[in-house]
Each structure stands twice: as structure tokens, then as C-alpha cells.
Amino acid sequence: MLVAEVQRQLVDARVADRQTAYHCPACHAPVRLHRGRQVPPYFAHLPQATCGVSSEGETPEHLRGKRQLAAFFRPWGPATLERVLPTIHQRADVWIGHQAQPVAVEFQCSPLALEAVAQRTAGYRQLGVYPLWLLGHRYRRQRLNWRLIERFASWLPQWGLCLLFWDVRRACLVVRHHLRQDAVGRYWGGQRRVGNWTQFLLGATPPMARPVLDDHRLRLQWTRGLQRQAPQLRLIQEQLYLTGHHLAGFPDVLATTQSTAPVFGQGLLLWRIVMGAWLFRGRPEITVAEVRTLSRRAYELVGGHAHGVRFQADHVLTSAQDQLLADLVAGRYLALSAQGWRVRQAPRWFRDYADWLKNHEKIKF
């Protein structure tokens, strides 16, 4: 920790001396001042001591980062290091006394379980405090993945759904912004280095859309994946077998290159394929309730996630559902009815990749 207590007064480790007796501001147990050439001054509990307030391990990155973050966010409001919140047994790395709503800045450098992130976030919200998570070097070097997004992503004005990282070496913010997923589930988004608070407020424009998917390569890739018994594809193919279809032979009307918020698991395209098989299982009429049920089941099958710790994404599934139905109506496979939709004709499926390729080559030439 960077601050300790002396006679009910807080003292910064940078101006502390070894002769004074210091105590933890949270549990009031004795703490010891540490100074070194490589590590900034800090206080630590004595061996075997226990403290009921959550706190981050004091790595050099964490110690330096907290001070840098306090300086960076100071234009937002008065910045205080290591604000103790006894009612929720937490300690904010940096507390921003923003007039509209206090902000608790959490600088996360070490691994943290999903449950712990959710618990800390809920604690701050209980007090009406906005939690702002920033991630250290070990997180910044990771490729974009759902574990990162689920725990730490949030919607911010001008940045969309984003992840915030703090680069201690350069003392700047790194924002992975407008996070998206292409139709086959690959994560992407923009990245911007932010040197000051004014730049942070300006935000960034969304990045350009990803290139169009190679339909030929994708169907071949799925065919080979099924031959290797890829577990996730096998689960989807098992469902398609029940409707008499093969994954690599999906109809053209179900194809899409649309990107979505990064909550569709293996991607929007697989979800559309599963829905396209389930909607035409012999029923002449499809109700709104049935579509919603099938939509949610298909979403779970492809590994979709309705929300993260700090964001909700139910609207993404609703939008995808509406777009699929609109495509099927436009293709004259469905027609609107009083109960929902009436089946006009089923889309044509190919037997497999080879059958699709043979028909594709006929059309091409």
C-alpha cells in the first residue's frame, strides 16, 4: 500500500520515515515501510497479519501505476490513493471524487477470477460508485478473448465496448475500443494510445470493417474440422444431423459477413445456420414465442454469452434474430402471418462441402 495511518492521519510512503509506527488504514494493524532501489516506497503488513479489505499484491508495476493513474485522472475530479471503503471491505486503488458520481479505479496486474471481479464490481455499485477497471502488462500482451471481455469490458461514450490498459513504462492509457466479432467468431477492434485526459474524452472512431469471409475456405475448414472431431463443431453437426443437414452445405441465404458485439461465441454465422435448420423442421406456422425459444437455444449451442460483468448484450441477439427473419422473408422462404410467420418453402441445403463445390462451380462457369 502507498499510504498508512499515523494518529488518524494518512501518510504517503514517499515522505514516510522508518522511525515512525504506521498502521493499516483499513484494519489498523501495524505495517512496515519498505524502500528499495527497484521498488517505489510502500507499506506492507507484518508476516502472518490478516486484513479483511481486498487489495492488490504490491508489484512494482502496481505501485507505480497507481500513482500515475491518480495523476492521469485528476482532471476528472480530486484523486485519492487507496480509499478504504469499510462497508464493503474493499480498497479502491485510486478514488476519483467526481461531482456527479464517485469513480473507483482498479488497476489489475495479477490474475483475478471472474467471481472476484463480479464481487468487487457489485460492491462499488452498492455504494453508487462507478468502477473503472484498468489492466496491467500481463493482460495487455494477451490476444483478445472472451475471458478478458467478460471480466473487464465496459461501454464508454466515444469508445464503444472497450478494454482499458495502463502502460506503466510510458505512463499512458491503451484503449482497445469498439470491440467486435466477425461472422465466424474472431475478435477484433481498434487500439489507441491516450496520453492525457482530454484525449480520453475525445475517444476514437470505430475501425474499418473486417474483410469479406472466404465462403469456399470456410466450408472446407469446417469439413476438415469435423473430420478431426473438433468438439465444438461436432456438437453443432449433431444437431444438424437431426434435421438431415450438413454444416458445410448450409444455404446461401444463411450466409453473412456481418460483425456483431463480441458475444456470439463461435460466431453469428453458425447461429444463423442452426436457426435456419430448426425453423424449417416441417411446421407450417412459426410463432413469435417459438422463434425466441429457438433463438436462445441456438445462442447457447454456439457458446453465446448474454452479458459480462459490466455490460448487457441481449439486444445483440434480438437484432440478429430480426435480421435473419427479414432475410428469410425477403428470400420468400417465410411470410408474415397473424401468429408470426408462415413457411413458404425451405431453403436448399447441399449434401456436404463437395456437393456445394460442384454446384458452385456450375454456377460460376
UniProtKB/TrEMBL annotation:
Ranges that cross the membrane: none
Superkingdom per UniProt: Bacteria
Ranges of residues in domain Competence protein CoiA-like N-terminal: 17-53
Competence protein CoiA nuclease-like domain boundaries: 58-152
Name this polypeptide is given: Competence protein
Species assigned in the record: Levilactobacillus namurensis DSM 19117
Lineage: Bacteria, Bacillati, Bacillota, Bacilli, Lactobacillales
